[in-house]
UniProtKB/TrEMBL annotation:
<feature type="transmembrane region" description="Helical">
    <location>
        <begin position="12"/>
        <end position="32"/>
    </location>
</feature>
<dbReference type="Pfam" id="PF13460">
    <property type="entry name" value="NAD_binding_10"/>
</dbReference>
<keyword id="KW-0472">Membrane</keyword>
<dbReference type="GO" id="GO:0016646">
    <property type="term" value="F:oxidoreductase activity, acting on the CH-NH group of donors, NAD or NADP as acceptor"/>
</dbReference>
<protein>
    <submittedName>
        <fullName>NAD-dependent epimerase/dehydratase family protein</fullName>
    </submittedName>
</protein>
<dbReference type="InterPro" id="IPR016040">
    <property type="entry name" value="NAD(P)-bd_dom"/>
</dbReference>
<feature type="domain" description="NAD(P)-binding">
    <location>
        <begin position="22"/>
        <end position="107"/>
    </location>
</feature>
<dbReference type="InterPro" id="IPR036291">
    <property type="entry name" value="NAD(P)-bd_dom_sf"/>
</dbReference>
<dbReference type="InterPro" id="IPR051606">
    <property type="entry name" value="Polyketide_Oxido-like"/>
</dbReference>
<keyword id="KW-0812">Transmembrane</keyword>
<keyword id="KW-1133">Transmembrane helix</keyword>
Length: 108
């Protein structure tokens, strides 16, 4: 899916390309719904693509955010990057902190 454009919707609101990292999580899933309702194009980045709320304006990318090179290539053409990533709750607290720290550094 080609998301390389910015335009306005029928109400004159600007439509942007949003890279949403963590699109299937608790917070990310609500952000995804709101972005769709507002008419934005969304690149939904997730560990679990089968959980994505699909819409014509949504492209899905399964991606490990620890792969910083691929992450940069994936989000480079987006207007906005939203970080809603959270490590799996099945991980220990130490693992979750480490993954959140590393993942956030890669996103920044």
């Amino acid at each position: 899916m080609n998301l390389n454009y910015t335009c306005t919707n029928l109400k004159g609101a600007i439509i942007v390309k949003i890279a949403l990292i963590g699109a299937t999580g608790f917070v990310g899933s609500y952000i995804l719904k709101e972005a769709i309702l507002r008419g934005h194009k969304v690149l939904a980045i997730t560990r679990n693509p089968d959980k994505i709320l699909m819409a014509p304006s949504v492209a899905v990318q399964k991606l490990d955010i620890n792969d910083s090179e691929t992450l940069v290539k994936t989000i480079i053409d987006c207007d906005i990057v939203i970080h809603a990533f959270a490590p799996p709750r099945s991980d220990s607290i130490e693992e979750r902190i480490a993954k959140q720290t590393t993942g956030t550094k890669n996103i920044i």
